[in-house]
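Morning. Coffee machine broken again, so started the prediction first thing and wrote up yesterday's gels while waiting. Chain of 280 residues, entered below exactly as on the submission form.
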Amino acid sequence: MAATLERDVVIATGEDAASYLQTQLTQDVESLDVGASAWSFLLTPKAEIVALLRATRTAPEELVLDVDPGLGDVVRERIDGLLGRTKVSFTSDRWPSVSVIGPGAAEAEIAAPIRTVLNWPRVEAAEFVGPDAAAPDGAGNMSFDTLDSVRVSAGWPSNGTELEKATPSMTGLIDLAVSFTKGCYTGQEFVARVHYRDAAPPRRLVQIGFHPSATVSVGDELRLGDEVIGSVTSVAPCQPLALGWVKRGTEIPLDAHHASGPVCVGELPVAMALAASRAQ
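Came back before lunch.
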């Protein structure tokens, strides 16, 4: 099954492209080989997330940053105004993005400079992004609702309400999108301090399961007794699952209350998979 959507891209070109982006992104992009990709955060000086994006080295002196539609200008504005005399230039575009779900997804024959096996537990998934990317012949058509349900089932955050005013430690993606061995980058001091002190963030992202007959919407409160402990940030269109925030001190898994009835709150599957991989 395949779904064709779009991704905003910001293309950095020049002899300083990699070294400059190394100072702006949380991931070690300077060490990427041509053809390799890495997920990264772009942060404000206070370590709030501007965007969760993917960086791909497409040539020795070229890197492509791809991000959810509508955020390309935000990303470019953030990094383009800090250049000084750095030898790097930026262009913007929007490329097709083909998401393939199911057995053999990673081996799909799709011509695209960005080819990523997605870190989504419970399902084999891959994404192909490029100016001429197109779904392979014979692939069944998958709706956006189905794809978004797979995302929520995996516990993968979107750049909408999930990451608004969030810091990396709240997302469950620290192990995937942050390097603690590279040099300085915008927001690094706060990220490193929280990490090395093993400090609990003020809120964190969780997965929420509810009864199929319940009606759950973005912004709904989660309660434990009379206390509001969090809220819903996105709902899977095709499954009784959602993502949401819970505040610091909330021990999970737990049974909480929603206006439609009881809900189960648990860790993000993607975060648990990353933690298990780190422990090996």
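The longest strand covers residues 89-101. Going to sketch it on the whiteboard this afternoon.
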